[in-house]
Specification:
- With 628 residues, the protein is of the alpha/beta class.
- The chain is 19% helix and 32% strand.
- The chain is built from eleven helices and 34 strands.
- An eight-stranded mixed β-sheet has the order 17-16-18-19-26-25-24-22.
- A hairpin with a 3-residue loop joins strand 4 and strand 5 (140-147).
- Helix 3 packs antiparallel against helix 11 (606-625) and helix 4 packs antiparallel against helix 5.
- It is elongated and about 150 Å long.
- The two termini are 38 Å apart.
């Protein structure tokens, strides 16, 4: 097994060995005297011979004991370390960096303990063997490639911290097999707390577990509900520990501190805590305070944030000679402030400041320039080229067919709708059909590169029973919702490490996200905006601005959104085996073998060598006393 030294420079102390030999060779000289007989002087003669300078080295017990003691003390000073296990020619380590690796049930935490275990593995490499380390959360990255010594591995791992999201082992394994010089003979070592899924077809893996007792309490949800007076908040607490726990949940609504509520939970139990009469409209923050800190090994899920849903009022312009069906359908949309003008007045308005985010053109040519913002064109005139959609002659549509995946047709029933007249359409690049009538599209949409959205309905509403059917206001709601996306197109609860896709407002010129710490991230320009990813839970503010004059925006739209860290797979810190894809119990499905790897054990031998040296010195002293 490999033996290394913590302080190899101290091996220079081995120079004491020739010094001891020199002391035996260079003995002091004595003056010669004549005596009558040497019978009584044999002992003195032996001592005299021993002290003769530059004499040939003779076997002497005290000499060998002193040399051996000096050698042991030299080895002890150099700090010898002996490792229990060796390694193959190529080791590829897959280091779990998910949120659960922040657990403190292993000192100082699971991730740090995992890094130390990897360094110990690197110290056990045979001469010529290499180690590659891939750290993976939701995305893998190589932090060490083909290292041959523990020092470089230790340096590369220093400063790394786990993420706040989950772990996806599949991409990391694909990267590992691609980096392996010989995938058949390489050793793949998974260092994790077990909260990962091994994909089908994975190579044989060794598993090094890094986990302790796994006690944890988590805030698993925060739901807000609007009341006639203020709002209510429902907080969910779950006990993942193996013993009963208790504590308190503190709540803050906007800048108001609410009274805390206590909880007591058995293992695996859940509690729901309700607050009512909170200030309306503001964000809410919940914070967990356990009575026993040892029962809560993961601080990441001790806080939860929520933002109440609010509607944004939008100014819309309806350009028509008169269409009561459209006016009625648009008036049902509570987030729209609709203004009606004639086509002649509309053309004059285009030459002035245009504050409308949505323009609905009923039977009006869009012209060569689109108005700012989103546009819905209904019943276009023949010959119009509406940004790549060419309007042809009128025809009588046949049965209507919905195009799968359309954003406009949720809860819309097209059966038995009768159309007497519509305009044939030829769609250019970028347009997508939503409703087809035979081979001609009847409804289509397009998204411009800057985030502006267009929709085209080729039907004449006065020559149809569509406005009389319940599906018509639903269709208009769906179209307007797509044309005017909310400030944030994201899951209701955004998670750390998750790509949050943001939709630009039709007039937006700049999109910025700022966190509670004041840091800002510019998402656009260029458009479309880049997705937003963060590993820090908390409240974030999205700001979209437009109409810049003298460097300052004329208008802004802002919205708060919450990013939380709770994931059930990460909050459950209990020790467990990695789960194989298609396996309920975490066992092997026969495609690969998961073997458990024991951590490389290191033994510091300095104290042992010091003890041996002390024993030899005692033996040497005893031998000297007996005259050897």
């Amino acid at each position: 097994m490999p033996l290394s030294f913590s302080h190899p420079q101290l091996l220079l102390l081995a120079l004491t060995l020739p010094a001891i030999l020199a002391l035996y060779i260079l003995r002091r000289r004595r003056r010669e005297r004549l005596v009558s007989s040497t019978m009584l002087w044999r002992q003195a003669t032996a001592e005299l011979n021993a002290n003769r300078p530059w004499q040939r080295l003779r076997r002497h017990l005290l000499l060998w004991l002193q040399l051996l003691a000096a050698a042991l003390l030299t080895l002890a000073a150099a700090g010898p370390v002996w490792y229990h296990s060796g390694a193959p020619e190529e080791t590829i380590v897959l280091l779990d960096a998910s949120a659960s690796m922040q657990g403190t049930d292993v000192s100082p935490d699971r991730f740090t303990a995992a890094c130390r275990a990897i360094v110990a593995e690197a110290a056990s490499l045979k001469p010529g063997a290499t180690m590659t380390v891939i750290v993976f959360g939701q995305r893998p990255r190589v932090v060490v490639q083909e290292a041959t010594d523990a020092a470089s591995v230790r340096q590369a791992l220093a400063g790394l911290r786990p993420e706040a999201g989950g772990a996806d082992l599949g991409p990391a394994l694909s990267l590992a097999t691609a980096l392996a010089r010989e995938a058949e003979t390489a050793r793949f070592l998974l260092v994790s707390d077990g909260g990962v899924t091994i994909p089908a077809g994975a190579p044989p893996l060794e598993y090094l577990a890094v986990a302790g007792e796994g006690n944890n309490i988590a805030l698993t949800g925060l739901t807000l509900r609007q009341l006639p007076q203020g709002q209510a908040a429902l907080v969910t607490v779950q006990n993942f520990a193996k013993q009963p726990v208790s504590g308190q949940v503190l709540l803050r609504a906007a800048a108001v501190e609410a009274d805390g509520q206590t909880f007591a939970l058995e293992p695996g139990a859940t509690a729901h805590l309700l607050w009512e009469g909170l200030p309306a409209g503001g964000p809410v923050t919940a914070e967990l305070k356990p009575d026993d800190p040892a029962s809560n090994s993961l601080a990441l899920d001790d806080s939860f944030w929520a933002v109440p849903q609010t509607e944004r009022q939008v100014q819309a312009l309806l350009v028509t000679e008169g269409n009561m069906f459209l006016e009625r359908a648009l008036s049902l949309l509570t987030n729209l402030s609709v203004y009606r003008v004639t086509p002649a007045a509309y053309r004059q308005m285009l030459a002035t400041a245009y504050p409308y985010e949505l323009t609905v053109l009923d039977g009006v040519a869009a012209g060569t320039e689109l108005p700012p913002g989103a546009v819905l064109l209904i019943n276009p005139p023949e010959g119009l080229n509406f940004y790549g959609a060419v309007c042809g002659p009128a025809y009588r549509p046949a049965e209507l067919q919905a195009v799968p995946g359309s954003p406009f047709l949720a809860y819309v029933d097209l059966a038995e709708i009768q159309l007497a007249r519509a305009r044939s359409l030829t769609l250019g690049q970028g347009w997508q059909a939503d409703i087809m009538s035979g081979s001609s599209p009847l409804l289509a949409h397009r998204e411009e590169g800057g985030g502006r959205r267009l929709a085209l309905l080729a039907a004449d509403l006065f020559a149809s029973d569509l406005p009389l059917r319940p599906s018509f206001p639903i269709l208009m709601q769906n179209i307007v919702s797509w044309l005017l996306p909310p400030l944030l197109e994201a899951p209701r609860e955004a998670l750390t490490g998750q790509e949050i896709k943001l939709a630009a407002l039709p007039l937006a010129e700049e999109i910025v996200v700022s966190g509670a710490d004041g840091r800002q991230v510019l998402l656009a320009p260029p458009f479309p905006p880049a997705p937003f990813i963060t590993d820090t839970p908390g409240l974030y503010r999205l700001t979209q601005s437009w109409g810049r004059q003298d460097g300052e925006p004329e208008a802004r739209a802002t919205a708060l959104f919450a990013v939380n860290a709770y994931r059930a797979t990460e909050a459950d810190l209990s020790p467990r085996e990695p789960v194989r894809a298609g396996s309920e119990d975490g066992g092997s499905n026969g495609e690969a073998v998961l073997t458990r790897s024991e951590p490389v054990r290191s033994h510091h031998l300095g104290g042992f060598f010091c003890l041996l040296a002390l024993l030899l010195i005692l033996v040497e002293w005893r031998a000297a006393c007996r005259g050897y």
